[in-house]
Amino acid sequence: MDFRSVYSADHLARMLVATGAKSGPLHHRLSTGIAELIDRGELPPLAVLPAERALADALLVSRTTVVTAYHALRESGRLQRRRGSGTWVSAATPGSKRETVSGSELAGDHLASSFLNGPLATVDFANAALPSLDLVADVSAGLTGADYRALAMDHHGYHPRGLPTLRERIAAWYSAAGTPTAPDEVLVTSGAQQALELIARGCLHPGDGVVVEEPTYRGALEAFSRQGSRISSVPVDRDGLDTDELDRVLAGGRSTRLVYVQAAANNPTGAVCSENRRRRLVAAVKRSEAVLIDDTSLMGTTFRGDPPPPLLTGAGDRVITVGSMSKLFWGGLRLGWLRAPSRVISRLAQVKGGTDLGTSLVSQEIARRLFDHIDDAAAERRKGLDAGFATLTDLLADHLPDWTWAEPRAGASLWVRLPQGDATHLAQVALRFGLALLPGAVFSAEGRTDDHTRLPYALPPHVLQEGVLRLARAWRAYTDGGLREMSLTTAVT
């Protein structure tokens, strides 16, 4: 039989987190979750599922629970089983060998999972998106009919490089910050994620080496992985990327095409790269043939100390900077950009033009006006993030005193180390308490950070309180045992 995908127990466990909390007996919860993954196409036809015992261990349930769930899925026609060959997802139709939509990147857990399918649980700690600032609505409401007519005067409305007036504004912002920039060195994108996808598609061939931070932004890992890259990791501490280790990796004899960093603020740790590390990072890249990708998406979220410079400079034409409006203003704008030498921008604009012919002009006009409010937005974010951080850490100190973390300087999340166990298993327990939790393994190219989890603090205080209370109950259940047949209803009550 031609199986396309084989899923480990931990991989399937992470995917099941994205199906959200379910009620009822565990076997029903499990079969319903797997059925959703199959029906949505996230578990494709002929995909091999883990053995019953392995999945039971990953989900902290009894083997009988998995056997019962698999049996129900076979009865519904979603699974097939053959002694000695394991269990796999049924073909879409008898004799079918391929779905209509069946790209390899569709399989598995991914960045968009927590947004595609609605709230995952009563309390959602699985994403760290920031709420919109009021000034976004105020500025948007300021657009008049004359403003829309002015945009429409361009008869076709297609600008793959971006609205010229916005590119001029972004260039002026960088220039005012001390790095002269021309509009033709700016490419507007539909968010930072699209910017990373364009870089991956435009710069990488299968087998190319990419160095990333560990932990790092999972969307970058997904973009590079889809191009068949060979990904290596370098640890991050409170001062940013470990540049000594980066030197060793770059000198290791295997060529590196890209070095991806988040010098302004690391997602998920909130670490800000120190000035010394910034200099050493640039020097290390200059000695190699790599291209440096500086993702500044969290720029403007610094709430401890002075904000860092907006750019890594000194590496000549081998630096591509990613920027975004999502964290500072609002993700719903779907507005990001790339800053790079004009020739690089021209090549990446060709890639973007073949994808969407340009980002929404209305969002771009709103973004252009929001650039006049960057300082006010950063001050408001600083106040809100500082308060949220204090609330979350006070709650953790009261209810989970053995959990530890390095204090972030920026960002919207706390990177927490578990005293024992792993976050993939804990996330399954948390769902039984109505709490969606993201395993730390998704922030590592090799899944090596599952002794951590990311906790968001840009949430209302009452949500943080309820979430930590549920997390503490889940942690006690996880560490005390006795979970194997606990239903969601029993756990929450």
From TrEMBL:
<dbReference type="InterPro" id="IPR036390">
    <property type="entry name" value="WH_DNA-bd_sf"/>
</dbReference>
<dbReference type="InterPro" id="IPR036388">
    <property type="entry name" value="WH-like_DNA-bd_sf"/>
</dbReference>
<keyword id="KW-0032">Aminotransferase</keyword>
<keyword id="KW-0808">Transferase</keyword>
<dbReference type="GO" id="GO:0008483">
    <property type="term" value="F:transaminase activity"/>
</dbReference>
<dbReference type="Pfam" id="PF00155">
    <property type="entry name" value="Aminotran_1_2"/>
</dbReference>
<dbReference type="InterPro" id="IPR015424">
    <property type="entry name" value="PyrdxlP-dep_Trfase"/>
</dbReference>
<dbReference type="InterPro" id="IPR015421">
    <property type="entry name" value="PyrdxlP-dep_Trfase_major"/>
</dbReference>
<dbReference type="InterPro" id="IPR000524">
    <property type="entry name" value="Tscrpt_reg_HTH_GntR"/>
</dbReference>
<feature type="domain" description="HTH gntR-type">
    <location>
        <begin position="24"/>
        <end position="92"/>
    </location>
</feature>
<keyword id="KW-0805">Transcription regulation</keyword>
<protein>
    <submittedName>
        <fullName>PLP-dependent aminotransferase family protein</fullName>
    </submittedName>
</protein>
<keyword id="KW-0238">DNA-binding</keyword>
<dbReference type="InterPro" id="IPR015422">
    <property type="entry name" value="PyrdxlP-dep_Trfase_small"/>
</dbReference>
<comment type="similarity">
    <text>In the C-terminal section; belongs to the class-I pyridoxal-phosphate-dependent aminotransferase family.</text>
</comment>
<dbReference type="Pfam" id="PF00392">
    <property type="entry name" value="GntR"/>
</dbReference>
<keyword id="KW-0663">Pyridoxal phosphate</keyword>
<keyword id="KW-0804">Transcription</keyword>
<dbReference type="InterPro" id="IPR051446">
    <property type="entry name" value="HTH_trans_reg/aminotransferase"/>
</dbReference>
<dbReference type="InterPro" id="IPR004839">
    <property type="entry name" value="Aminotransferase_I/II_large"/>
</dbReference>
<feature type="region of interest" description="Disordered">
    <location>
        <begin position="83"/>
        <end position="102"/>
    </location>
</feature>
